[in-house]
Design a protein that fits this description.
The chain is an alpha+beta fold. The protein has helices spanning about 5-15, 25-45, 50-60, 80-90, 105-120, 125-145, 160-170, 175-190, 205-225, 240-245, 270-280, 295-300, 310-315, 315-325, 345-350, 360-365, 400-425, 440, and strands at about 65-70, 75, 95-100, 255, 290-295, 350-355, 370-375, 380-385. The longest helix is centred in the last third of the chain and has 29 residues, at about 400-425.
Length: about 450
């Protein structure tokens, strides 16, 4: 078995030694922006069916503890609270993502890190360091895999490394425990099947479970449980050069994208083109006879069915296309169940045909594009997009734009005052002697 030279130790050393003072200011500020975005995304999931189910599971599976459960008056064990809080962040597919990682680091890292920080009385600076270290490690772990060999790109397969690093950095002050956490995350993290049977329903990408495993790996290590401490030195599935790519020099967190629609990012260009075509050409939806969408092969593997649940809708190109054309792009900010029975949307969904496209395939994953053609009774309109879209690293949202998104979801849940106070707390996070977020995260009563 080939051994790579101290790869695991290099990763652990980077994570442990990363200090607030060594991180560029723009990276710290962008991390705060990602935190604000993730909190807004979590608020958006309050009261959803999956939220209610998880609150039932907490008592049954974990019982009472000292860790904050967002949106609930009770507390749970640390693992139970992390599972619950992470679920909120990923439930609606509004969470951030990373092109090179092909997944969603924020949902796997931020809720877990915040829950650990509050439970262990950590400072705001410690939380910032932990979140940035976790992004840097988790993104590299994902991008070090051979894309051509992957049957799926579910974040659950690597999210445990991010949550484990974030937790370990706040709990330990030595390198070996961090190495141990990486080994346990590799051994106990979710191993996801090549294709999840359709519909996926509430399982999404296995992110909540992977986050819980990462935190549990830190707790196991703290209790003295030992695993392989050089796991990446022997795993040939990971490119060693990519695992340690420019550590300490290049911060890949800066390339994290932020979403504006609650559906898979691969559908976002389609939503944009449908919206633009309708606006620019003044298309009457009643005149539409056919909608042809070209996309990447991985998007063709979605169920792409007429949805019965929110989870179905997030991965249905026909439905999202029809919803955009009939109700406007704003309807994709938070998909409403009522649209599943809308006759106009249902009719239009049936007119959508999907195709692959070699040009789009070659551009992926650097760019996720699309080509849309709308045929009406009298004319054919077409448009293509193979370029960065709003929210990508090349066209980022400003802090103010992210705050606007956050407030849309936060105010109905916690009220105007607490929603605004939470933003101020995050924007001045490094000044907090301890992270007490649960006072902001409860329901408005």
């Amino acid at each position: 078995m080939k051994k790579y030279s101290d790869i695991t130790r290099k990763i652990a050393t980077f994570a442990l030694n990363l200090s607030y003072e060594s991180i560029p200011l723009e990276i710290i500020e962008y991390a705060k922006t990602l935190i604000i975005d993730q909190l807004g995304v979590s608020f958006a999931a309050y009261g959803t069916p999956i939220h209610h189910v998880y609150q039932k599971i907490l008592d049954l599976s974990f019982g009472y503890g000292k860790a904050p459960v967002w949106g609930a008056e009770t507390k749970s064990t640390l693992s139970g609270a992390v599972l619950h809080n992470t679920l909120l962040g990923t439930a609606l597919d509004l969470d951030d993502g990373h092109r090179r990682a092909l997944g969603h680091p924020g949902a796997a890292i931020i809720p877990a890190a915040m829950t650990v920080a509050e439970t262990r009385n950590k400072s705001g600076k410690a939380l910032i360091e932990a979140i940035i270290a976790a992004y840097e490690v988790a993104i590299r772990v994902s991008m070090a895999r051979d894309l051509d060999r992957l049957e799926n790109v579910y974040t659950g397969a690597w999210g445990a490394f991010g949550a484990g690093i974030a937790s370990g950095k706040m709990i330990f002050s030595e390198i070996e425990p961090i190495q141990n956490i990486l080994g346990l995350a590799a051994m106990y993290g979710p191993t996801l099947p090549g294709s999840i049977p359709s519909p996926r329903r509430m399982v999404k990408e296995g992110i909540p479970w992977s986050a819980m495993v990462g935190v549990q790996a830190a707790l196991f290590t703290e209790a003295g449980f030992e695993g392989p401490k050089c796991v990446f030195d022997y795993l040939s599935a990971y490119d060693p050069d990519k695992l340690t790519y420019e550590l300490n020099h290049v911060f890949l967190i800066k390339d994290t994208y932020i979403k504006q629609y609650s559906c898979c990012r691969w559908i976002h260009p389609i939503v944009l083109l449908c919206h633009r075509l309708k606006q620019e050409e003044d298309i009457n939806v009643n005149d539409i006879k056919e909608i042809r969408v070209k996309t990447i092969s991985r998007a063709l593997s979605f169920s792409n069915k007429i949805p019965q649940t929110i989870e179905d809708a997030q991965f249905s190109i026909p439905f999202c296309s029809a919803l955009t054309l009939t109700k406007g792009e704003s309807a994709l900010h938070l998909i409403d169940h009522k649209y599943f029975r809308d006759p106009e949307i249902l009719r239009l969904s049936q007119t959508v045909t999907l195709q692959g496209d070699e040009e789009l395939e070659v551009a992926f994953p650097g760019k996720v594009g699309t080509k849309v053609e709308i045929k009406t009774r009298e004319k054919v309109f077409s448009k293509s997009l193979i370029a960065p879209i709003k929210g990508d690293a090349e066209k980022p949202f400003s802090r103010e734009e992210v705050k606007e998104k956050y407030l849309i979801y936060a105010k109905p849940v916690v009220g105007d005052i607490r929603a605004e106070n939470l933003i101020r707390f995050i924007e001045n996070l490094e000044g907090a002697s301890n992270v007490r977020l649960s006072k902001f995260m409860g329901l408005n009563k």
